[in-house]
Write a structure and sequence with these properties.
Layout: E1 4-11, E2 15-17, H1 31-39, E3 45-49, H2 50-55, E4 72-76, E5 89-92, H3 96-104, E6 111-114, H4 117-125, E7 131-137, E8 145-146, E9 156-164, E10 170-177
Parallel strand pairs: 1-6, 1-7, 3-4, 3-6, 4-5
Antiparallel strand pairs: 2-8, 7-10, 9-10
Domain Bacterial bifunctional deaminase-reductase C-terminal: 2-169
InterPro entries: DHFR-like_dom_sf, RibDG_C, Riboflavin_Biosynth_HTPR
Organism: Imperialibacter roseus
Length: 179
């Protein structure tokens, strides 16, 4: 069965973005960035919510086009609609839990959960995230979009590995232990 891996940057106080969705303040240069870009090769599928997908428009992504050229994209939204999406882009508007359970049973690499604290919180509540890879940045936002929006349950994590980078970024990799 394929794993869903939530691979995301976070502040020390647990935010993945400011309230407006911007990410200014995260360290954008260093070995942690090149390692992250290299790690994207491990995935052939990416899942995300509408807000995360649309955030890519700020960086030149055109609606309906893939953000990661080598990955199949599943964008979860009940309101997003593209006239002619690229063949690597599919909007999932109905039955997201059933869809993801079926996707996890297909053949392929681990599935990259890209950003989206609200979507991640929803998936965590349905016990669909298998691993969390957090690039913990030495910055505090004070408020913003939480790593797992709306999550009120307690989940235990088992460390798989960790890396300390120059500049203070930590990559923390955990498996979620759903009791």
């Amino acid at each position: 069965m394929r794993k869903i891996i939530y691979h995301v940057a976070s502040t020390l106080d647990g935010y993945i973005a400011h309230k407006d969705g911007t990410t200014q303040g995260f360290l954008e240069e260093g070995e942690h960035v090149s390692d992250y870009l290299e790690s994207l090769r491990e995935y052939d599928t990416v899942i995300m919510g509408r807000h995360t997908y649309e955030y890519g428009y700020n960086f030149g992504l055109n609606p309906g086009q893939p953000a990661y050229p080598h990955m199949m994209h599943y964008i979860f939204s009940s309101s997003l609609n593209f006239a002619q999406p690229h063949e690597q882009v599919q909007v999932v508007s109905d039955n997201p839990i059933d869809f993801l359970q079926e996707l996890k049973e297909t053949v392929g690499s681990p599935i990259y959960l890209c950003g989206g604290g609200q979507f991640a919180g929803f998936l965590l509540g349905h016990k669909l995230i298998d691993e969390v890879k957090v690039k913990l940045n030495p910055v505090l936002f004070g408020e913003g979009i939480k790593l797992f929006e709306g999550s009120e349950e307690t989940y235990h994590l088992r460390e798989l590995n960790s890396i300390v980078y120059k500049g203070g970024v930590f990559l923390l990799n955990y498996e979620i232990d759903y009791l």
